[in-house]
Amino acid sequence: MNTILSQSPIFKGLQPPEIENLLVQVPHQIRHFHKDDLLAVAGEEVKTAMILLEGKLQGEMVDFSGNSLKIEELIPPQMVAAGFLFGKKSRFPVNLSAMADGEMLIILKPNFTRLLSLDNRVLNNFLNIISDKAQFLSRKISFLNFKTIREKIAFFLLQHYKSGFRNIPLKQNQQSLAEMFGVARPSLARTIGELQREGILEWRRGEVEIKNAEVLKSILQ
Amino acid sequence: MNTILSQSPIFKGLQPPEIENLLVQVPHQIRHFHKDDLLAVAGEEVKTAMILLEGKLQGEMVDFSGNSLKIEELIPPQMVAAGFLFGKKSRFPVNLSAMADGEMLIILKPNFTRLLSLDNRVLNNFLNIISDKAQFLSRKISFLNFKTIREKIAFFLLQHYKSGFRNIPLKQNQQSLAEMFGVARPSLARTIGELQREGILEWRRGEVEIKNAEVLKSILQ
DNA sequence: TGAAAAGTGTAACAGCTGTTACAATTCGGT
DNA sequence: ACCGAATTGTAACAGCTGTTACACTTTTCA
C-alpha cells in the first residue's frame, strides 16, 4: 500500500518509510467497495479524507430534473473530495459512485488535520491539491460555458491534440462524453456526424482522427 | 486597516494586535486601484496573495467568442483568487477588474507561505477559504447546468426567499444578472416578462416580489 | 432642469438542442 | 460463432435561446 501512497499527490516527496511512520501516528482504515456502489450522495457531510487506492470512481451532479452532469472520474492514488473536507459546509457536491471494485484509505477529519500538522510537506501537498481542485472546477465552468456542442467538441479535441498526434484515443464512450459535456447523447452524435461530413474529423470507436485541425481551431473564435 | 483585517476570513479569530504582530514579520504592501482598472487577465500567473480592503472587484470569464460570464463579485475583506495561489498552474481563471475605487493588501507568495506557517489559526482559516472557494465553484457549476432560464431564475430567487420575505432586493441590474446566468440580456428579460404575466412574480427595479412561491418551486422539478 | 447615459420591455427570426423512437453496428461472454 | 447487450447513427419535431433592432423609461450628472 505504501508504494501506491508514495505516488499519491498528498504524500509526494515522501519515502514509503516516512509515510508508514506518519500513518502509525494517525488512525486510519481501509474501505472496500464494489462496482456501482454509491459511496456518497450529494449534500452528505464529508467526514473523512479519502485516498483512492484501487478502482475507479465518478462524481456526478444531478439536478432536480434528474439531468446528470459527470464532473470527473477519479483513479488511484488521487484524493477524493479534497476540496470539500474543510470550509463552512463540508458537503459532497456530487454523487460519488464506483465504476469498478476497489478500496480507499480513509482518515477522519480531525485525524487528517493532525496529519497535516505532523509534516509540512504533506500540508503543502494538500494546499496544492485543493488549489488544483479549484482550478479544475474553474476550467470546468469555462468549458461548460461554451454555447454550442461544436465548440465543446473542438475544445475537447484540441486539448489533446497539442502533442501533435492526429489520432486521439477516447477513453469514454459517447454517452459518457455527453454527460461530461452536459448535453444529450443524440445531440452529441448528430454534431459528430456533421463534423465528419464536413471532413474535419473521423470519429471511430475508441479514437478520433483529426483531419483538419485548422477548421477545428476556427470553431473556437 | 487592522480593524478591517480582523474581520477578514483569513485573520478570523485573531485580535488586531496579533494581526499587527504577524504583519510586522511578513513583508507586504498596499495596492491602490481605480474603477474599471483591469487588475489581472485570465491566464496571468498569480504571484501574490491579495486581500481586498476597500472597493469592489469582479471576476469574469471570457471565452474565445467574447462571451463573458461573471463568476463573482468580491467585497472587503475577502481574499482574491485564494484558490489559485497554490497548485500546479497558479493562474488567474478570470479577468479581474475593479467595479469601484479601492485598495488591497498584497503579499508575495513565499511571504504568504511564511505567514501560514507562523500562525496555525491563519493556516486553518486559509484551508477553509480555499475549500469554500471550491464549494462555491462547485455550486456555480450546478447552477449553470440548469437547462432553462426559467430554472435559473427560480433557483436564484428561491435561494433568497427562504428567509420568508416576499420581497427580494436585487443588488444587480438585468445585464449583470444575465452575465451571472450565462445568458443573453433580452432572453432574461423575456423570461421575466413571461413569469410576470403568469402572476408568479413582480419584477421591479431593485427588487422582486414573489407572488406564488409554489409555482416557482414546481419549476425546479 | 435638461440632456445624455443607462437600464428595461418587446418583437421577429434563425439556429441549436432535447426528446423520442428506432435502426444499425459492434462488443462481450459463453 | 452465436446471441444479447451495449453502443452508435439517424430522423422529425417542438421548444428554447441568441441576435438584432428599436421604443420606452429611469437615472445620472452637468
TrEMBL record, chains A, B:
Q: What is this protein called?
A: Transcriptional regulator
Please provide, in alphabetical order, the Gene Ontology terms of the cellular component aspect for this entry: cytosol
Provenance organism: Prolixibacter bellariivorans
InterPro entries of this UniProt entry?
A: cNMP-bd_dom, cNMP-bd_dom_sf, Env_Response_Regulators, HTH_CRP, RmlC-like_jellyroll, WH_DNA-bd_sf
SMART domains membership: HTH_CRP (SM00419)
Which superkingdom?
Bacteria
Q: Which residues form the HTH crp-type domain?
A: 147-214
Question: What does the record give under GO molecular function?
Answer: DNA binding; DNA-binding transcription factor activity
Q: Which UniProt keywords apply?
A: DNA-binding, Transcription, Transcription regulation
**Pfam families for the chain:** cNMP_binding, HTH_Crp_2
What PROSITE patterns does this protein map onto? HTH_CRP_2 (PS51063)
SUPFAM superfamilies in the record = cAMP-binding domain-like (SSF51206), Winged helix' DNA-binding domain (SSF46785)
